[in-house]
Design goal:
heterodimer; A: alpha/beta; Rossmann fold; 8-stranded mixed beta sheet; 8 strands; 13% strand; B: mainly alpha; Helix Hairpins; 2 domains; two-stranded antiparallel ribbon; 2 strands; 65% helix; unfolded protein binding (chain A); ATPase_ArsA/GET3_euk (chain A); golgi apparatus (chain A); identical protein binding (chain A)
C-alpha cells in the first residue's frame, strides 16, 4: 500500500468541505502569492462555489498582488465571478465603531456639552482602541464571526470557502489563539454576570440584556472554535522558503498549530531555483544557492514526510495580476516539473 | 519502684526521640526522597530520573551538532525535547503530590506514635513523683507546691487561698513525715530547660565561628584639588 502524500494541493483545491483555509509563514516568503494562487485554483476548480480571500495582515498586499484596489468590503476580482477579496482595515473598522457609538449617544439625547460625547466625536474611541496590542487580530476575528452569522442567517453574499492571507507567524498565532482566549474570558464573565447580572442591568446598561449578549457571543466563539479544530472544515497551509530561519519558524508554527488541535498538512516551499534543469540561465550563483536550497529540501522531506510538500519555482518576474497568478498557481494543482515547465517561469507578463 | 522506672524510662525515650528528630531536621528531605525511591512510587521516580538523563543527553547532542547542517536531526531532537519537557513537568507534579502525601502520612505517624502518647503520658502521669526532696522546708511552700503539683498549682493558687486550704500535696502521710515531691511534669520541664541551655552553650562554644575583632585602619586623608579650586575663601585685594 502506497502511503506517500501528493507533492501538490490537488486534494485541497478540489475539496468541497473546507470552509476556512489559512495561509501563513514568515514574512517575505510569499504568503500573499500563495494564498492568491490557492484562491484562484479553488475558484477555477469549483466554478459553482463562491470564494473569499481575506487579508488579515495589517500591511495588506492583496491589492498589489491582483493589481486592483480592494477595501474593507468584499469585492469580486476582475475577470473572476466566483472569487472576491477584501482587506480588513483596522482603522476603518474602529472608525465605524466610533461613529456607531456617537450616533447611539446622539439618539439617547446626549448633547454636545457631554464630555463623553465630545470625546467620541473626535474619534477618541478609535484612537484609543487602535493602540491596543492585538487589535488587528481581534478585528479579523470579528470579521470571521460576522461571516459565520451571515451564513447562519442565510443572508446574501455568502461564501463557501474563506481563504485567509495571514500576517507573519506571531500575529497569526495570536489570531488563532483568540477563540480559546475569548472562550475562557467569556466563561469568567458568565460566572460574574450570573452573580451580578441583575445589578449590572439596573446600573445604566439600559435595555441591553448583558447576560443574553454574552451568551450569544459565547455561542458564536464556541462555534468558531469547533469549526477551526475540525480538519474537514479548516486547514492551515504553511509557506516557507528553503532557508534555515524560515524553516525554523515553520516548525514552530506547525508545533503551535498542533497544540491548538488545528489541521496542518501542507507546506509550500517557495522561490526554488531548480538550477540544474535551467540550462539556459545557469549562473554560478544560482548553482550555489540551489545547492543550499537542496540541502534544506532534503531535510524538509525527512521531517515532514506525511505532509503535502509543494515545491514552487522562483519566477523571473514579479507574480502580479490575475494572469500571472493563474499561470503560477497551476503548480499548486499539479506539481512543477523543472524540465517540462521551466519555460513558464520566463513567460510572466511584465505589469506596469 | 518498677512503676517509677517505666514512667521515667518512657519519658526519657520520648525526649531522646524528639531531640534526635530535632537535630536531624536537615536530613529529613533526603530521607524522604530515599523513602519515595523505595516506596510504591519507585517506578515513577525511576522514570523521572530516566527522562531527566535522556533530556540532558539530547541537550548535549543538540549543542554538538550544527542546526544548519543537520536541520532534520536538530529539529527532531527539539521535538523530542519539547515532549520530554512536558512529560518531566507532569511527572514532577505527580512526584511532588506523592511526596506531600507521604509527608502527611509521616506527620500523622509522628503524631500518633510520638507527640500524642507523650502528651497523654504527661497529662496522665504529670503528678507522678519522680523523687522526693530530702526536706520539706527546702523551698518556700508555693515552690514546693509547684514542684509536686505542676504549673497548674500556680494557676489554682488564688482559688485555694480564697478557700483557705493552701496546702502542699504530701506523700506517705502514714509515715507522718511531710515530704515534697518533684512531679514528672516539672522534672521533664527542668530536664528540657537544662538540655536547651547545654545545647546553647555547646553551640556558642563549639559550632559558632569566632568573630575576629575588627582592625581599625586609620583613614588617610585624601585631598582632591580641582584644577581651578578656590583655596581660600578670601579675595585678594590689591
Amino acid at each position: 500500500m502506497d502511503l506517500s502524500v501528493d507533492p501538490n494541493l490537488h486534494s485541497l483545491i478540489n475539496s468541497t468541505t473546507h470552509k476556512w483555509i489559512f495561509v501563513g509563514g514568515k514574512g517575505g516568503v510569499g504568503k500573499t502569492t500563495s494564498s492568491c494562487s490557492i484562491a484562484i485554483q479553488m475558484a477555477l476548480a469549483q466554478p459553482t462555489k463562491q470564494f473569499l480571500l481575506i487579508s488579515t495582515d495589517p500591511a495588506h498586499n492583496l491589492s498589489d498582488a491582483f493589481g486592483e484596489k480592494f477595501g474593507k468590503d468584499a469585492r469580486k476580482v476582475t475577470g473572476m465571478n466566483n472569487l472576491s477579496c477584501m482587506e480588513i482595515d483596522p482603522n476603518a473598522a474602529l472608525k465605524d465603531m466610533n461613529d456607531m457609538a456617537v450616533s447611539r449617544a446622539n439618539a439617547d439625547g446626549t448633547n454636545d456639552d457631554d464630555p463623553l460625547g465630545g470625546l467620541l466625536q473626535g474619534g477618541a474611541l478609535a484612537e484609543l482602541t487602535g493602540s491596543i496590542p492585538g487589535i488587528d487580530e481581534a478585528l479579523s476575528f470579528m470579521e470571521v464571526m460576522k461571516h459565520i452569522k451571515r451564513q447562519e442567517n442565510g443572508e446574501s453574499e455568502t461564501f463557501d470557502t474563506v481563504i485567509f492571507d495571514t500576517a507573519p507567524t506571531g500575529h497569526t498565532l495570536r489570531f488563532l489563539q483568540l477563540p480559546n482566549t475569548l472562550s475562557k474570558l467569556l466563561e469568567k464573565f458568565g460566572e460574574l454576570t450570573g452573580k451580578l447580572g441583575p445589578m449590572l442591568n439596573m446600573m445604566g446598561a439600559g435595555n441591553v440584556d448583558i447576560a443574553s449578549k454574552l451568551n450569544e457571543l459565547k455561542s458564536n466563539v464556541e462555534s468558531i472554535k469547533q469549526q477551526f479544530t475540525d480538519p474537514d472544515l479548516t486547514t492551515f497551509v504553511c509557506v516557507c522558503i528553503s532557508e534555515f530561519l524560515s524553516l525554523y519558524e515553520t516548525e514552530r508554527l506547525i508545533q503551535e498549530l498542533i497544540s491548538y488541535d488545528m489541521d496542518v498538512n501542507s507546506i509550500i516551499v517557495n522561490q526554488l531555483l531548480f538550477a540544474e534543469d535551467d540550462q539556459e540561465h545557469n549562473c554560478k550563483r544560482c548553482q550555489a544557492r540551489w545547492k543550499m536550497q537542496k540541502k534544506y529540501l532534503d531535510q524538509i522531506d525527512e521531517l515532514y514526510e506525511d505532509f503535502h510538500l509543494v515545491k514552487m519555482p522562483l519566477c523571473a518576474g514579479e507574480i502580479r495580476g490575475l494572469n500571472n497568478l493563474t499561470k503560477f498557481s497551476q503548480f499548486l494543482n499539479k506539481e512543477y516539473d523543472p524540465a517540462a515547465d521551466g519555460k513558464i517561469i520566463y513567460e510572466l507578463e511584465e505589469k506596469e | 519502684m518498677s512503676a517509677c522506672n517505666w514512667v521515667i524510662a518512657t519519658s526519657l525515650v520520648f525526649v531522646t526521640i524528639n531531640k534526635f528528630l530535632q537535630y536531624s531536621t536537615s536530613y529529613h528531605a533526603s530521607w524522604m526522597s530515599k523513602i519515595i525511591q523505595h516506596s510504591v512510587h519507585k517506578k515513577s521516580y525511576d522514570d523521572y530520573h530516566k527522562k531527566l538523563q535522556e533530556r540532558l543527553e539530547l541537550q548535549e547532542e543538540n549543542t554538538t551538532i550544527s542546526a544548519q547542517d543537520n536541520y532534520a536531526k536538530w529539529t527532531k531532537n527539539n521535538r523530542k525535547l519539547e515532549k520530554l519537557n512536558e512529560e518531566i513537568k507532569a511527572l514532577g507534579i505527580q512526584l511532588k503530590s506523592q511526596q506531600s502525601s507521604i509527608e502527611k502520612q509521616m506527620k500523622k505517624f509522628k503524631l500518633v506514635t510520638l507527640t500524642a502518647p507523650f502528651i497523654i503520658l504527661k497529662l496522665w502521669k504529670g503528678k507522678f513523683p519522680v523523687y522526693y526532696l530530702p526536706h520539706s522546708d527546702m523551698f518556700p511552700k508555693i515552690i514546693g507546691g509547684v514542684m509536686s503539683q505542676g504549673w497548674l498549682y500556680l494557676a489554682l493558687l488564688p482559688l485555694q487561698i480564697l478557700r483557705g486550704s493552701s496546702k502542699v500535696e504530701t506523700q506517705g502521710e502514714e509515715s507522718m513525715a511531710i515530704q515534697v515531691s518533684v512531679s514528672l511534669g516539672i522534672w521533664l520541664w527542668a530536664l528540657m530547660t537544662v538540655i536547651s541551655t547545654v545545647e546553647f552553650l555547646i553551640n556558642q562554644l563549639v559550632f559558632t565561628k569566632e568573630v575576629k575583632k575588627p582592625v581599625v585602619i586609620e583613614e588617610e586623608k585624601i585631598n582632591i584639588k580641582a584644577p581651578n579650586a578656590i583655596e581660600e575663601d578670601k579675595i585678594a585685594l590689591d
